[in-house]
């Protein structure tokens, strides 16, 4: 016996797939995978990144909007881990060859100002937020055509690949009625509103604190929480410039270099 568990083996395959920009088969097609097991695989896969020197810098929420649930064919909110290597500086141009089939989506980001105890009440959770920012999330499923079950995508760290933060700003009085635009090369690709995020992005923040707390990973000072996409995601293609604009919060943008064609 090698002593390697099936969860560790799957975590290694997912981690390698992300590093190499290669797809792997959906785990659920090979063996039964519960959502709880999938979160354990996610933790193991991200631990490999941490072993290479990346730092945990926050969490991302997934499927907090009906648009995303419908686009991806799932019906439950999930979460994933953000690491330091995933942060793409605002305005940067990224190389497309690094990804498999990246997509981009507009999000609201929260900055956590203090460590949160497990089981903190919603008021404590919301008052720990010191700033908010418009954000872009780059997602890149390690499965062909972004096809997965809920457990598959949880194991794959909720398709996390990168994120871009616009300027942090003080917490506004409310966040639930802000218009959201996703622009590609200056043209509108998707439009929506922050209300699409569980009715109010604050609900997503509270859910993030509760879900991660229950998993023994409560939110910490300095962490970022991505509340989940306000619209469907769009493909991120070589040569493009993408911008998320959130009413009264500002914008976050990222470019993609022309890149080299895939072999
Ligand atoms: C999973 C990630 C979902 C969101 O904002 O809803 C997500 C996926 O769509 O592949 O990040
Ligand atoms: Mg997202």
List keywords for this structure.
Fumarylacetoacetate hydrolase, domain 2; 263 residues; 28% strand; alpha+beta; five-stranded mixed sheet; globular
Any overview of this molecule?
The chain is of the alpha+beta class. The protein has a single domain, classed as Fumarylacetoacetase-like, C-terminal domain (Fumarylacetoacetate hydrolase, domain 2, Alpha-Beta Complex), CATH 3.90.850. It has helices spanning 6-20, 35-51, 66-72, 122-127, 150-155, 201-214; strands at residues 56-62, 78-83, 93-94, 103-112, 129-139, 160-165, 179-184, 187-193, 224-226, 234-235, 241-246, 250-256. Strands 1, 2, 4, 5, 6, 9 and 10 form a 7-stranded mixed β-sheet that branches. A 5-stranded mixed β-sheet has the order 3-12-11-7-8, with no helix packed on it. β11 and β12 (250-256) form a beta hairpin. α1 (6-20) packs across α2 (35-51). The model has no long low-confidence stretch (mean pLDDT 96). Bound molecules: 2-oxoadipic acid and magnesium ion (MG).
């Amino acid at each position: 016996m090698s002593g390697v568990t099936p969860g560790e083996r799957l975590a290694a395959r997912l981690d390698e797939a992300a590093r190499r920009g290669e797809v792997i088969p959906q785990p659920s097609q090979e063996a039964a995978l519960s959502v709880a097991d999938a979160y354990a695989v996610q933790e193991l896969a991200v631990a490999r990144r941490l072993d290479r020197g990346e730092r945990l810098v926050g969490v991302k929420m997934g499927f907090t909007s009906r648009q995303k649930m419908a686009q991806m064919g799932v019906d439950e909110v999930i979460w994933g881990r953000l690491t330091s290597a995933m942060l793409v500086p605002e305005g940067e141009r990224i190389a497309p060859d690094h990804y498999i089939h990246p997509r981009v989506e507009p999000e609201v980001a929260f900055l956590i100002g203090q460590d949160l105890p497990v089981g903190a009440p919603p008021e404590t959770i919301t008052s720990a937020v010191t700033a908010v920012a418009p954000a872009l999330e780059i997602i890149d499923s390690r499965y062909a055509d972004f096809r997965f079950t809920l457990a598959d995508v949880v194991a794959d760290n909720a398709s996390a690949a990168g994120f871009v933060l616009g300027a942090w700003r003080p917490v506004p009085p409310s966040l639930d009625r802000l218009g959201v635009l996703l622009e590609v090369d200056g043209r509108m690709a998707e439009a929506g509103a922050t209300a699409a995020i569980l009715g109010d992005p604050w609900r997503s923040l509270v859910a993030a604190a509760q879900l991660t707390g229950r998993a023994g990973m409560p939110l910490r000072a300095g962490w970022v929480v991505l509340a989940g996409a306000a619209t469907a995601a769009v493909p991120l293609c070589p040569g493009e410039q993408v911008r998320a604009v959130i009413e009264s919060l500002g914008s976050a943008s990222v470019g993609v270099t022309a890149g080299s064609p895939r072999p």
